[in-house]
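Sorry to interrupt, but I need a hand with the structure work. Could you add the entry underneath, on a fresh line?
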Amino acid sequence: MTIAASTASTVDSYRGLMGRYFGFPDFRDGQERVLSQLAEHDVLAVMPTGSGKSMCYVLPALASGRTLVVSPLIALMQDQVESLTAAGVPAGFINSNLDRDAQNRNYRGFVEGRLKLLYVAPERFTNDRFVAGLREAGVNLLAVDEAHCMSEWGHDFRPEYLVLGAVRERLGSPRTLALTATAEPGVRRDIARLLGIDAPPVVTSVDRPNLKLAVVRIASPNQAKQWLLHYLKERVGQSGIVYVRTRRGVEETATLLREAGVAAAGYHAGMPAAERTATQRGFTLDEVSVIVATNAFGLGVDKPDIRFVVHLNMPGRIESYYQEAGRAGRDGDPAECTLLYDQRDEQAQQHFIERSHPDDVRFRAIWHQLLDDSAQDEGAPIRRNGGPADEEGYATAIAALRDGGLIDASGRLTSDDQDATLERGPVRAHQRYAEDRLGRMVDYAESGRCRHLLILDYFGESAAERCRACDNCLGEAGPAGDAADAGLREVIATLRDELASRYGREPADIMGPKTVRELATYRPRERGELLETWGIAEVKADWFGAEVLRAIEQWEEANPDAPARPERPERPGRLGRRQPRLVDAELLPVDEALYQRLSEWRRDRARRDDVPAYVVFSNKTLREIAALRPGDVRALSGVWGVGGSRVSRYGSEVLAVVNGG
């Protein structure tokens, strides 16, 4: 039977195979839909952790053979192959943990048809002979696990996944199944585009009603540790995970818990592989009740009875938080997911975002390292070989180089020019996107709304306004912890999202979470007070300031008993200084007709002066002029990229274009 056999007969056959090999009487939610559609066409499936995603490619492998599974996780490959082999499924894997003979043995077993499944890491496709051999043998199904790793907009982007679209073509475009547990709609579209999947995704609800979601506000790391000790003393014998941001934090927290009598162990990527494996196995066998870990722990951990997950630090985006929190309660029984929220977490995550997006020097260093590696590998697809290419910002740089055409779809460099132009636009766009995701995570932590609803809304699903499984809906949420009124924060955040939709921007481009908090805290009533708010310069005040002031006024009228506005603390050095521009030109609503007229004027002026157009004005400057529409020389002087000499040389002509002359 082939994968493309009739839908009804295929699904019935899969049901029989599932009972025969695994003893499962019927499909879980979503599995039958995926398998039915896979019999007809390629499929992107979004299914939550614990929903049995692997059955969606294991069953077709049993029926048709030669199923190639791409997975980023060596430990997960080994665990799954061991489980499948124990169930009688002929499966193997190829990764760096195997010696050359074992790799060759598994490869031959697959191409000769003895192994029905072969798990490989995406880096394996840099070997052209490997891919050519697979194509010659014929791959019946290509399964891409953790498919969100393909998208630079996803929460775990891995540059090595970018080549999979080209690899699929080189394999002869076999039937393809992309699988992920957490992908918001934009990431789903990106995955489908990169793999060439035309059909709408199969989306199983990410809702996990058995998880009780809660946020506890804390004021210091010491308070967090004291809270954790008290929390664990009430849950002796239960299995749980405590996530901590840094390796040092993992070691300190694990030591603290052990000294308090908790059977705890630490886990992070800096530990030797053998120690990590032993720790994970000890947790699985209940020899250790609590794992204290960085986000390196969890993928591939199939322990169903985890009763709680605690985050001592806030992750940078909701996908990351929900994937990690979702490791609790996979058996369907009640479990608790608690985020300890310190407002300083936002600053730490913002710092991480800045480090993850290379400046000009780091960007150029990564490019030079890639050129050196390419020369040594005789033009092979890019791979991490150490050096500057492994610095922070590597993944974002690779995505930007691909967007700029310096890396092609197969992962090879298209230039050997050390001084090639490196487009920073994609880096800036990605940073703004990451800051928007951080803002949504802060909104989750600070919101008084149903937390399940907030998560479902983030992933594009609808839900009832209240649940029975979060601190807000159960009336258990702690005090707000700051002067900002949660209700007004919601109003301003909603307005921000409406403005973003209206102008086609990301919400973070309109205002970040710190700006939302300041507006809700100090409740400005006129333009001067609005300009005192962090993140609101004159450009934004002109753009949407009136709407913000009106929203605050209406909220105050509806809440006459609200506390009085607090005094705004004086900021050192604020008075008497020009406030810096806080938005780039591309964030402003641009008069496109005026921009075209300015572009035509620039082209004509450049021809008269016999210079390149960018010497007159850059595109960024023209777009800002078209957004701000300066009416006089003084206003023109305040535009980005317009200095005194350009005002003297071009000012009268530019103003004439702006004013319709």
In short: Residues 425-446 form the longest helix (22 residues). The two ends are 73 Å apart (CA to CA). The chain has a mean pLDDT of 83. The chain has five domains: 7-203, 211-342, 352-428, 483-580, 590-658.
